[in-house]
Design a protein that fits this description.
By secondary structure, the chain is of the alpha/beta class. It has 3 domains: 3-47, lambda repressor-like DNA-binding domains (434 Repressor (Amino-terminal Domain), Orthogonal Bundle); 60-161 and 299-326, Response regulator (Rossmann fold, 3-Layer(aba) Sandwich), CATH 3.40.50; 163-297, 3-Layer(aba) Sandwich (Rossmann fold). 42% of the residues lie in helices and 17% in strands. It has 12 helices and 12 strands. The chain has helices at residues 3-10, 14-21, 29-41, 48-55, 75-90, 105-114, 131-139, 163-176, 192-206, 224-235, 249-261, 298-314; strands at 60-67, 94-101, 120-124, 143-146, 158-161, 182-186, 217-219, 243-246, 271-276, 292-295, 322-325, 328-330. Strands 2-1-3-4-5-11 form a 6-stranded parallel β-sheet, sandwiched between helices. A 6-stranded mixed β-sheet has the order 7-6-8-9-10-12, with helices on both faces. Strand 6, helix 9 (192-206) and strand 7 (217-219) form a beta-alpha-beta unit. It is elongated and about 80 Å long. InterPro entries: HTH_LacI, Lambda_DNA-bd_dom_sf, Peripla_BP/Lac1_sug-bd_dom, Peripla_BP_I. It holds the Pfam family LacI. This is LacI family transcriptional regulator. Residues 1-55 form the HTH lacI-type domain. Keywords: DNA-binding, Transcription, Transcription regulation.
């Protein structure tokens, strides 16, 4: 079925149908739903070239992908991308990845915008005073940041989870259970989610007169091996921490392995809480001791970013609003009262 046939069937003009399919704000919601439902039922798919000519839109969401020997494939990013891709596919958007030298992403951003390759971009893993956000403000292309950047003196559109609140609640729970030697195995300090998580835990301890000491903090890329190394270095100190809060389930795999190698029982000798991005292939309840977590789906975050980008492309969303999702604290068997043994 082509556009003309779809329009005749719905008794609407081709212009109205085209605008409804492409999310123009002047089409009312009832008409938009009617057109979208009919298009799905009859298998109508717009011709990409014709849509671009008619609307001036490429139908593309872009991402500048840092590459190089120092860049690892991050399963958190892959899961986020899956959520973004699910939404994009269902709404006839394509996703364009533009590889960039990790040390010179600005050149690629400028090229992508100048060539009009995409209708909007998203930015991930923001850093304090992130130069990419400053650049996109100057270039004028619609964009959204997954996360937040501190130190910018202007508003920008973002979607984030309450990292600070999540780790504050995790820390408060451990303090309530009598823990005073609490360690943090965090993501890399250059990224603001890690800054927020450290701040949340630090404030939770401070509220009870405790201190998150520098020797109790480890910051690494979030891999299983890094989790293992960080946990070993913490658990081989004396006195060792009685609880660890970890920034990823993947790192927590390494923490559990390190505790097992050292003969440390969870939660008898050490409590453990980790952040759960809700991976379908790694579930906290399936750990040898069901793992207490702060939980927020990174896949749903990807879908939400795509939804907001589509709205910004069509003009349904304007301004530079941010949204922060609350994070659930799920208590399972990996937390208990602080041990009383002298060497714990």
């Amino acid at each position: 079925m082509n556009l003309k046939q779809l329009s005749q069937m719905l008794e609407l003009s081709q212009t109205t149908v085209s605008r409804a399919l492409n999310g123009y704000p002047e089409v009312n919601e009832e008409t938009r739903r009617r057109v979208m439902d009919a298009a799905r039922r009859h298998g109508y798919r717009p011709n990409p070239s014709a849509r671009r000519l008619a609307t001036g839109k490429a139908g593309m969401i872009g991402y500048v992908l840092p590459t190089g020997s120092a860049v690892d494939i991050d399963p958190h990013f892959v899961e986020f991308l899956s959520g973004l891709g699910d939404y994009a596919r269902a709404h006839d958007f394509d996703l364009v990845l533009s590889p960039a030298d990790a040390q010179d992403e600005e050149t690629t951003y400028r090229r992508v915008v100048a060539n009009k390759q995409v209708d909007a971009l998203y930015v991930s893993s923001p850093k304090p005073a992130d130069k990419r956000i400053k650049l996109l403000e100057q270039l004028g292309l619609p964009y959204i940041v997954h996360g937040r950047s501190e130190g910018l003196h202007f508003d920008y559109p973002f979607m984030d989870i309450d990292n600070e609140g999540a780790f504050h609640e995790a820390g408060r729970l451990l303090v309530q259970l009598g823990h005073s030697r609490i360690a943090l195995i965090n993501g890399q300090r250059a990224e603001t989610f890690a800054v927020f998580r450290e701040r949340g835990l630090r404030n939770a301890l401070a509220a009870s007169g405790l201190v998150l000491a520098t020797p109790m903090i480890r910051s690494f890329a979030m891999t299983e091996e890094n989790g293992y190394r960080a946990a070993r270095s913490l658990l081989e100190t004396s006195p060792r921490p009685t609880a660890i809060i970890c920034s990823s389930l993947i790192m927590a795999l390494g923490v559990v392995r390190a505790a097992r190698d050292l003969g440390i029982e969870i939660p008898k000798d050490m409590s453990l809480i980790a952040h759960d991005d809700v991976f379908p292939w790694l579930k906290p309840e399936n750990f040898s001791v069901p793992l207490a977590t702060t939980r927020s789906s990174i896949r749903l975050a990807g879908a939400r970013i795509a939804e907001r980008l589509a709205a910004r492309i069509s003009g349904l969303e304007e301004g530079k609003s941010g949204e922060v999702w609350p994070v659930d604290l799920v208590v399972r068997g990996s937390v208990a009262g602080a041990p009383t043994r002298a060497n714990s």
